[in-house]
Design brief:
The protein has 136 residues and is mainly β. The chain has one helix at residues 55-64, and strands spanning 4-10, 15-18, 24-38, 41-54, 70-83, 89-104. It has a five-stranded mixed barrel. It is globular and about 55 Å long.
């Protein structure tokens, strides 16, 4: 089973692009905080995660989300490999979001907090026949 649920804040504004078949793809970073007590002292650790979202949710995310805004992400963990322009092999883990729920605005952000993107869409990578997706 591969299910990921994350609650965090955007580390950068979403970047919107379109695949050759005109499917919208948005990417953004998410910071997920974990607060825990060690002895008598409270500690905090931050996990940074790259998020990719497709279709109408990608367009909605790019339009309404901004750095610092809080979101709830539901999706799956994936591993990508690609070869850079310099010929070097690269790889990374990221979360492909099936659902992006807008929860609030970041500090000093103007915009439409509380917006919710449409429900899950079909996986646009399913038709690629196992081909690896190039970097965004």
């Amino acid at each position: 089973m591969n299910i990921v649920i994350l609650l965090g804040r955007l580390t950068r504004d979403p970047e919107l692009r379109y695949m050759p078949n005109q499917t919208a793809v948005a990417t953004f970073g998410l910071a997920v905080n974990r607060r825990y007590k060690q002895g008598e002292e409270w500690k905090e650790e931050v996990c940074f995660v790259d998020i990719t979202v497709f279709g109408r949710q990608a367009e909605t995310s790019a339009e309404y989300l901004h750095k610092g805004q809080q979101v709830l992400i539901e999706g799956r963990l994936t591993f990508r490999r690609w070869e850079g322009k310099d010929g070097q092999a690269h790889s990374k883990h990221e979360v492909v979001a099936n659902r992006v729920q807008f929860l609030g605005q970041g500090q000093g952000q103007q915009g439409r907090g509380g917006e919710r993107a449409p429900g899950p869409e079909a996986d646009p990578l399913a038709d690629l026949g196992g081909e690896e997706m190039p970097p965004f």
